[in-house]
């Protein structure tokens, strides 16, 4: 699913937080949305998701206009930093959840749900903890389950807001590899928000650098690293978190 963002702008009260954003993201890419805190990343992600409405501009998926569609009709998956798993449900049931609440006409059979969840558990290499509860898992394992849960319903687009932010550097690195692997196996389009330069440059096909509600640069990690388009990008890349 390709994503087109055309002339999107957004204000909260008198404060303009997004200025005329234009992006054309090809299908199947893993896109890192990178910028300092307050640059408008989350707001843009929420507008793409349909959780927030822009004051102007259009959002298209595969050139079809979804601007006026509800979040639930856009077929997007989400992973948030503090997107807690259901504590009273096993790992298996957490991953199956989205499938079990589908409208009856679309809901897969019990056997199909079992197979789909089983495949996802295998992909994240957590089949052996299917019957455990979230409290019995490490933070990294929990986020792998959260990833699998968001993918169970086969979203066309996966949106991740600082998905690994709360974890330590080593675990974050490992989770980036998981995201990359799932992305390559399941072929969806994803956008993940991060303020961490290394995180964005490490796994993205394309990086969108934002500052003060504007896109400063878009390009491959190599392009961004080797040819920063502005002083802002150069200085931001030089900062160590
Ligand atoms: P980022 O994700 O890059 O940190 P955000 O999109 O969260 O940036 O925020 C951009 C700006 O919009 C910030 O100045 C923030 O305070 C403001 N903002 C975000 N959400 C709201 C809201 N619901 N009401 C008012 N201001 C908001």
Automatic annotation (TrEMBL):
Keyword Transferase: no
The UniProt record lists the keyword RNA-binding: no
GO molecular function, one term: ATP binding
Domain of life: Bacteria
Sequence ranges assigned to domain ABC transporter in this UniProt record: 3-237
Keywords of this entry: ATP-binding, Cell membrane, Membrane, Nucleotide-binding, Sulfate transport, Translocase, Transport
Protein's name in the database: Sulfate/thiosulfate ABC transporter ATP-binding protein CysA
Species classification: Bacteria, Pseudomonadati, Pseudomonadota, Gammaproteobacteria, Aeromonadales
Gene that this polypeptide is encoded by: cysA
């Amino acid at each position: 699913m390709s994503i087109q963002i055309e002339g999107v702008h957004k204000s909260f009260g008198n404060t303009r937080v997004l200025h005329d954003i234009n992006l054309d993201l090809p299908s199947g890419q893993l896109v890192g949305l990178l910028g300092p805190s307050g640059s408008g990343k989350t707001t843009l992600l929420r507008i793409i998701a349909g959780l927030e409405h822009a004051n102007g501009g259009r959002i298209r998926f595969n050139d079809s206009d979804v601007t006026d569609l509800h979040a639930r009709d856009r077929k997007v998956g989400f992973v948030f930093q503090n997107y807690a798993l259901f504590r009273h449900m096993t790992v298996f049931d957490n991953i199956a959840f989205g499938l079990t609440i589908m409208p009856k006409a679309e809901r897969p059979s019990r056997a199909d749900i079992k197979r789909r969840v089983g495949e996802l558990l295998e992909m994240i290499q957590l089949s052996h903890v299917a019957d455990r509860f979230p409290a019995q898992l490490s933070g990294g394992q929990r986020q792998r389950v959260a990833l699998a849960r968001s993918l169970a319903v086969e979203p066309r687009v996966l949106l991740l807001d600082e998905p690994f932010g709360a974890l330590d550097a080593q675990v974050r690195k490992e989770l980036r590899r998981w995201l990359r692997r799932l992305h390559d196996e399941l072929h969806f389009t994803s956008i993940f928000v991060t303020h961490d330069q290394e995180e964005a440059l490490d796994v993205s096909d394309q990086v969108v650098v934002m500052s003060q509600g504007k896109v400063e640069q878009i390009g491959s990690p190599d392009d961004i690293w080797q040819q920063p388009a502005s002083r802002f990008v150069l200085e931001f890349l030089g900062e160590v978190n």
